[in-house]
Amino acid sequence: MTNKFKFFAADFPNSPGVYLMKNDRGRILYVGKAKSLRKRLSSYFRASANHTPKTVALVSHIRKVDVLLTSNEKEALLLESGLIKKHRPRYNIVLKDDKQYALFKLNKHSEFPRLSITRKVTRDGSVYFGPFTSSTAARTVWKLLGKVFPLRKCTDAAMKNRIRPCLYHDIHQCWAPCVKEVDRSLYNDMVQRVEMLLSGRSMELVDSLTRKMKAASKEMEFEKAAVFRDQIRAVKKTVEGQVAVIHDNRDRDVIGLAQTEQGLGLGLLFVRQGRLLDEKQFFWPGLTLDEGPEVVESFISQFYGPGRFIPSLIISPYEFDDSPLSEVLAERGAGAVRITLPQAMKEKQLVGLARSVAAQARERKDTISARLQKVLRLPDEPVRIECIDASHLSGTNMRVGQVVFEEGRRNPEASRLYAFPELDGTGDDYAALSAWARRRVESGPPWPDLVLLDGGRGQLSAVEAALAECVDDGCWELAAIAKGESRRAGELGDFIFRPGRKNPMPLKPGSAELLFLQKMRDAAHRFVIGRQRSSRKKAVLSSELTALPGIGSKTARVLWDRFDSLDDMINADSTEITTLPGIGRKRAEKIHAALQSLKISRKA
Predict the structure, then answer these.
(1) In CATH, what number does 369-531 get?
(2) Which of 35, 210, 325, 429 has a Cα-to-Cα distance from 508 of 20 to 30 A?
């Protein structure tokens, strides 16, 4: 092991930035930000410093410190957050459960607004409600609302191309504004009711519906009165699990911390329009309340990332007046965000409730990642697993698919497809996997904690040899899953191989660990085959498209960038084609005519 790191304050600038502490293998141990890098780093290596056990352990492993300068502390905060998410350093407060929660989205800018479930907030004029930590609960509410408030269900693209009502119209859950004449004033009135309900004005909505129900009954319009009655029941059923905790109309999240025997728990309450909508727990083993301010600041920075719903008020057990955190959240969200201590008695009670939630948080020791670490004998828990599968079509169209699982869940946005045209005609899976390993290293972090290959010892050796050439600090943790010869009922026949072992790992057939590895292998196989077929189909359709007069390869690319299928191109009118870049009115008319001729030839 190399000598202990010797710190000299003069080696570091007295300016804002981010520092990266590394061990003797160059791995990042900790990422931090500072208004003054010199002062902040000096606090770690001062002999009289009263450090927490975590900081003492961190300092003992530091062998190198790199710094990245920024123009201000706000830029340092943004850079720190991105680097923590990318590298997941061992000694940082890393938010493992950072998935986007379900939200209701009401696209009020549309002529006929639609209520949908989403996990991402975009600045498109829509109104968002939530979040729901349980997507099942969100979908249950969505279905209930759909039965009594028949808003349209289809997307804008589907609505534009629909020629007949869908099934939802047949079961009286949609007025079918896509093809039928719908009174916009009545539709907007229904949209307003849904918005009142989701924004917490449920009692006001019930009173309004009750008055309308009684008026309809008085006028002997009993069918209309029954509709209002069903809506009242739906409203009451939707809000029956929501507790009124504070009497105002503000959205706020409330954070509480609690020390447990195992570590530090954090409780988060989602309060919408004065009602407690949901709650969530987080846990970090081995931490204490002494690290509370760092935990809360890091949590807020990571949890309220881009695309997440951010309330205008966050109640925290600590103040961050000198931090640019509020400014950063305001830029990520849709308006000003205030992070403050609890002021009123009700807010203090909410922090106490959040603290009670935090006290119940526990480390999940039986996670699939922890079990895989044990059975595969890995040095660390595999938080990020990349599963790799090579595929070709009779030796051609060589592709390698990569799917990613984080904390036991698939991350579809991290999937990648690698093409290797230089290997076409070879059908060499080993060469493709070796080429993938080199390309994967070039693409940079986040690095995998485990790479799972669809194959056997040969595939494992090929990737291991390729990584040994281009990874400085040794090979990544590798495993391969291979199908056995047996296909008899009750025998799963899959073997798991690891480098340095002649025999497969002793995983029990039907065990949760083996089933999870099989699930990842199957996901990678479906991904690469699906993308391969899609690419081949698109190539065939593109050749059919470029065969038309006036449509070359560049025009075909422009059309494919705008439309999802050849049918969408054929159904588009010349006016829509005119909006494409580089295509004028006369050329659009020629393209439209060519597409119509293709439509006629298809029917012939």
Answers:
(1) 3.30.420.340
(2) 429
Tell me the per-residue pLDDT of 196-255, one tens digit each, with 9 for 90 and over. 777 766 677 778 888 888 888 888 888 888 888 887 877 677 665 555 667 777 889 999
Report the candidate in 161, 158, 165 with the shortest Cα–Cα distance to residue 181: 165
Equal fold, 252-359 vs 369-531: yes
- DSSP class of residue 423? G
Interatomic CA distance for residues 190 and 335, integer angstroms: 27
> Residue 244 gets which letter from DSSP?
E
CATH class of the domain comprising 252-359: alpha beta
Residue-by-residue DSSP string for 551-584: --HHHHHHHHHH-SSHHHHHHS-HHHHHTSTT--
Residue of 70, 81, 72 whose CA lies nearest to 32: 81
For helices 37-45 and 53-61, angle between their N-to-C axes, nearest 10 degrees = 100
| pLDDT tens sequence across 449-488 | 899 999 888 999 999 888 888 765 556 899 999 886 654 4
SS3 401: strand
* 9-87 topology per CATH: GIY-YIG endonuclease (3.40.1440)
pLDDT digits (tens, 9 = 90+) for 112-142: 999 888 888 887 778 888 787 777 777 877 8
Ordered by start, the domain boundaries in the chain are 9-87, 107-243, 252-359, 369-531, 547-603
Distance (Å, whole) CA 469 – CA 106: 52
Inter-CA distances, 177 with 111, 161, 283, 405, 587, Å: 10, 12, 48, 40, 33
Backbone angles phi, psi at 78, to 5 degrees: -65, -40
| Superfamily of 547-603 according to CATH | 5' to 3' exonuclease, C-terminal subdomain (1.10.150.20)
